[in-house]
Amino acid sequence: MSSKYRVEYQLKNHRKDEFITWIKSLLASPFVLHAVSHDDDDNVTTERVRRQYAEIFQDIELLISSKIEFDAKNGLLDVEESNEGQYELIGKSRLNQLVPSIGPFFTMLPLHEAFLWEDSKRAISQRRMVAPSFNDVRHILNTAQVFHFIQQKREGGAGLKLVTFDGDVTLYEDGGSLVDADPVIPYMVKLLESNIRVGICTAAGYDEPTKYESRLHGLLVAVHSSTTLTSEQKSNLAVMGGESNYLFRYYEDGDDFGFKPIDTSIWVLPEMKDWQDHDINATLDFAERTLITLKERLKLPVETVLVRKPRAVGLVPGEKSDLTSGKPVRVLLSREQLEEIVLTIQHSLETFKPARRLHYSCFDGGSDVWCDIGGKDLGVRILQKFFSPNNPIKPSETLHVGDQFAPTGLGNDVKARLAGFNTMDFIS
């Protein structure tokens, strides 16, 4: 029953990633036609299937290359750097015609190489009963993104300069924190050692650093105690909180270390300066009224808490006493309730005039729902300019690691694709 539910759930349109689904459909044909032994030599079948899969990824790689050329010709890449030399948009790239919802690609993806590497680890071409899956394709895309930056480094080209991470369900469990023993910490320190800036770009919005210091305590201790990091490299660690509302940078003074707030005037983007307080308040008021209405209409648990912040409003699970143990337990909202709420708020705000004059994000955080002023695309762009004011880091030099990539308002990491190259690390 649960397996059937998960299958049907993933088939919902708002949960699909059209590009991954399209690739998966291309791989279905060779699986059906060739992943069956016509002789006694199963190695021959495996090689035939591997070749068919590899050729498909090679063709997709060429389509991506063609799209990048098309977008560059029409001034759709790195448009902030210069408005000169742009062309009038004529038609669509072949990949846009095949996958209408496809976004920009800022670099090439060596998908052929990535598939062969993943196949050597996961034996995709040796499977006879299970076709290449959604997660197989995600793994291959992630590996291709990593391979690109490795190749750039080897060739001495424009390499990776900024890596941004989502917090909940990416660096740590939902509502959790980074502790000293977390295996991701040494890798984050290694990025800093390589002179790569590291930003935690999270929806968690606090206007003071204490809570970020608590949730990222293990990383802060590792950076402070490192004997290989220079002071400049340590300062290349920052937190962008509340999507794009609060910026904090690592500091240390003797035994004192943590995050210090950066004044908004230093990092705010030009378009954000035009946002009016009355529009912000009106948007949050509207979202709050909608949440209250939905709480009643959907018969949400009475323990569900409405939380209002200066730049966000949301519904979070409440607690009640367990009848058996007497201990407090969270009263969670169902997946369907979370999705109904976030899609309703998103749809309602699209026609609300004050909201249309702003940038906002509505998303399902896994156990809660939020409407935030700003977005992770702005957060990544802020970090790109903050770390390199005179020569902002380019999207092609940026990697965002997150888990919320649903194609509608359900996932807030998906907006980061507008500001930088992306990978998804949350793969079941």
From TrEMBL:
Keywords: ATP-binding, Hydrolase, Magnesium, Metal-binding, Nucleotide metabolism, Nucleotide-binding
GO molecular function terms noted in the UniProt entry: 5'-nucleotidase activity; ATP binding; magnesium ion binding
Enzyme class: hydrolase
Catalysed reactions, as listed in the record: IMP + H2O = inosine + phosphate
Cofactor(s) recorded in Swiss-Prot or TrEMBL: Mg(2+)
Domain of life of the source: Eukaryota
GO biological process, one term: nicotinic acid riboside biosynthetic process
EC nos: 3.1.3.-
InterPro entries assigned to the protein according to its UniProt record, in alphabetical order: ISN1
Biological function: IMP-specific 5'-nucleotidase involved in IMP (inositol monophosphate) degradation.
Subunit structure: Homotetramer.
Family, similarity comment: Belongs to the ISN1 family.
UniProt-recorded name of the protein: IMP-specific 5'-nucleotidase 1
Organism: Vanderwaltozyma polyspora (strain ATCC 22028 / DSM 70294 / BCRC 21397 / CBS 2163 / NBRC 10782 / NRRL Y-8283 / UCD 57-17) (Kluyveromyces polysporus)
